[in-house]
Amino acid sequence: MLKPQDRPQQIQKWYDRLAPLAANARQQLQQIETPRLVRRSGCTLAPDGSLRMTLLWQAYAIDPQGFAIRRADTGQAPTEFTQALILTYLVTADGTPPSGGWIAYRDLPDGMFYAQAFRGYAENRLTRELGDEGLDGRERFCRAAQRLGGRPIDIGDAGYAFQLLPRASLAAVYWLGDEDFPSRASVLFEDTAPHYLSTDGLAVLGSHMVNALLDNAGE
Q1: For residues 18 and 100, which has the higher predicted lDDT (pLDDT)?
Q2: What global pTM score does this model have?
Q3: 55-61 CB contacts, 8 Å cutoff, 24+ apart
Q4: Where do the domains of the chain lie?
């Protein structure tokens, strides 16, 4: 994930708007019985009584009493931003079944207000750093998506879905250009995603998915 000093201003604003939600989340979550929280969020209950979930390919353990969060592999506490995403997910989750339908960022609640910023920091950046040289850019895109375990979807010239939270998937799509239009990339959201994370949180999630794709696009 991006380090705090490396975040573009708009991404930092998305994080900042998550902060007040996360600040109250632990108190709200303590009012929800653990079995109900498991049903709503899609987390699993481990033998030690902790809740388990994966965010952006990393597994976490959550104490259902005080909702302290640790990495499942090292036991270390994740960054405050990761904790904010997890807590916001848990408190927002309402158990709506995932649909498998896809929408653009602008179609999320209030997404139109920040669609241009998201396009610049996520979609345009993905195209620019992969390269828009047609088949070469698509090859790098596919290589990265396959390394991350993406599930192929029938959208664009190459599309992959990623299960980034227990009940929230995002997709990345590559569209080949031609003599009139350059290649471009899109980030899509499962249309039930707003039942699990705020629009700001989904923007952060999308930006980190793009980071992961770019990190895995090399030879």
Answers
A1: 100
A2: 0.88
A3: 55/82, 55/85, 55/86, 55/89, 55/164, 55/165, 56/1, 56/164, 56/205, 56/208, 56/209, 56/212, 57/148, 57/149, 57/164, 57/212, 60/86
A4: 4-92, 102-215
